[in-house]
Structures are given as C-alpha cells and as structure tokens.
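This part of the workshop introduces the protein records we will be handling. Each record describes a single protein and holds just a pair of labelled lines. Instead of coordinates, the fold is spelled out as a row of discrete tokens. To make this concrete, we reproduce a full record directly below:
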Amino acid sequence: MIIARSRQELQAALDTKRGSIGFVPTMGALHIGHRTLIEAARRENETVVVSIFVNPTQFLPGEDLSKYPRREEADFKICELSGVDVLFYPDVAGMYETDEVRVCAPDVRGFILEGASRPGHFDGVLTVVMKLLNMVRPSRVYFGKKDAQQLALITQMVDNLFMDVKIIPMETVREKDGLALSSRNVYLDEKQRVEALKLSASLKEATKMVMQGNLDAEKIKAAMMNLLQPLDVEYVAIVNRQFESIKEVVIGNTIVLVAARVGTTRLIDNVWM
C-alpha cells in the first residue's frame, strides 16, 4: 500500500496504476461500515484509493472538530488489510488556501434538515469532495446511505457539473442491536448507547407501519417521536429521493430520517423505502 501525503505524491502513486479506480473518501476512525465500502471498491475496480481527511470546513463553530476521533495507526492497518492500493492522507495546508473558490450547496436542498441544523456544513462537504474527486479522478466513488442528504447533494453536484464519475450508494451497516455504525459512537457511554437505540427503533416502527399499509407521513412521524422520547430530537422527516416533503410514503421513492442528540452526541439515521 502506498501512502501519499500530498497532491504530488498522490499523482505519482496513481501514475503507476492502470485501469478503473474505486475511491472511498473518509474522515478516518474507520469501522466496519467503511470496510464495506472499501471491499465493494476492491471487487469492482483494479485500483482502490482511500482518503483520510478530517475536513475543517464542514464543521461549525462549537462542533467536535478538535476532538473528532483520530486513529492513524489503526486506520492504516485496516486499509492495508482491506487491500487498499493508495491511501491519501493530506493535511489542511495541502487541501486549502487562505482565499479560494468554494462550492456552494443548492439554495433549497442544501438548507433543510442537516443544512438547517448545520448551516454552511454542506458547502464544506461539497468543496472537499470536489477537490478529492478532481485529484483522484476515480471511475467510481462509494458513499454510505446513512448520510442520505450528503449523498443526494454530492450526486446532484456530480450531475450539475457534468463530472465523469459514477456514484455507488451502499447500504447502512449496523451493529447487531440495530445501532447504525458511526465514528461518533465512541462518544457514547454505556447508558447513552442504550438510549441511542431509540433512533433505529423509531425507524423500525416506521417500516412496520408502512408494511401494515399506513402510508400517512404525519402519523408515522408522530409514532416515531413518541418512541424517541426523551431524546433531544432535531428532526424527524419523510421525504422523497429529491428531498421534497411528502404527505404519503411512496414505496421505492421515500427516505425516513431522524436526527437527535444523545447526551452531547449528535446522531443521524434513516431508512430508504
């Protein structure tokens, strides 16, 4: 495995490779969910590139940038064992100048749900993803469905800007008890981890209601809110794939989303229907 710490080192590493490139951009603290993305990239491409970069522009003031989990040695070992060909590990100075062009999130879909809770977050996400895609130039790039709105906006950016890359969405990976895997789960103590299961439990209830024929979005959201108590719920939403609010679930074109704080830890989860 080649470890590249600059754009120049990345380019030199990629110059030695041939064929399709599968790319998995991450912020490190790798877990089984990331490994699932890497394994898919390994199956479907001749070269696999993983990036690890804790992107400062997507964190708001007061968020967990300084304490975001960083496990360089463990992450490198996971990449090596997963068959990664090139690990790109840049620093902030190598990714950003002091005054530069930025990519802006769309005016509507970029400022609802996650965008409303974290204004400016998606500007940072789209900017860094644009940079990484331009540097790696992958054939395919792999993202998890847990960050559903992020996935939708990156897909829109690729489409709007006519970028030559195929986005591969991957299913959310969960613990046996249903908790969606997240690097931020390490913040939870034993009691909070039990409380965090209310997110996935609320989504299971939504799925159950739909399977029983109850497609009314407001009734589903009310039932979810009931199960989420007493968590600090930021939103429960039911939208179509274009992230437009809908009154009834449409099978094959609906996402049910939830965001809540468990203690001081902010968690998100969703189910695609």
Observations:
- Strands lie at 2-4, 21-26, 47-52, 86-88, 140-144, 166-170, 232-239, 255-262, 265-272.
- The mean pLDDT is 96.
- The two ends are 38 Å apart (CA to CA).
